[in-house]
Amino acid sequence: xxxxxxxxxxxxxxxxxxxxxxxxxxxxxxxxxxxxxxxxxxxxxxxxxxxxxxxxxxxxxxxxxxxxxxxxxxxxxxxxxxxxxxxxxxxxxxxxxxxxxxxxxxxxxxxxxxxxxxxxxxxxxxxxxxxxxxxxxxxxxxxxxxxxxxxxxxxxxxxxxxxxxxxxxxxxxxxxxxxxxxxxxxxxxxxxxxxxxxxxxxxxxxxxxxxxxxxxxxxxxxxxxxxxxxxxxxxxxxxxxxxxxx
Length: 246
Description:
This protein has helices spanning 21-31, 46-52, 54-58, 73-87, 110-142, 163-183, 202-207, 219-231; strands spanning 12-16, 36-41, 63-67, 92-95, 145-150, 188-195, 199-200, 217-218, 240-243. By secondary structure, the protein is α/β, with parallel strands linked by helices. The protein has one domain (12-243): 3-Layer(aba) Sandwich (Rossmann fold). The relative contact order is 0.16.
């Protein structure tokens, strides 16, 4: 059982969104620091995700991949039960899964607007709620654990063309803030990294080939921020961490 002066030692961390760009930096960073890693991938993509980290596993890191539809509570419950049965209880969760899409247009109408909102809520809010709810019981029982998720500048700084995404990320940030207040007194840390800008990743280079990458946030800095939040001890939790390139 954790005492108030103990920081969280590396144990089993579940990393969602393992097929995304940020996972390519975060997963090796944590594995090299002693964390055992359970990766979640969309059903059908688990082979590609496992192959992505095959070299890391061959080097001796304990990395396993589990397919799961994070938007489905039943699927998450089953997949996380499998993680627990095969690898033990998770001591940390790093939620990297997310979904960005532009729009909807202001004149899209109710059906298209509702559909866009549902997609972004599935990808950003519900996926997080389901994953967090799957690991919290064990963390609360141990009175120890850490959860990290990713917010977005769109949630606090309005911009055109991302209404549904901003709404979903705003809901996620509100959920994380409320959850932090609820479980922090039980020894569980809940932190949200708030990036002020784009990440310097291959995906963003492909999506924004003419962008000025010198103003983008380094993926390595994000991995360091994740590890920092995971390492915080009770009476020194960091619930929200802004991250910028300058």
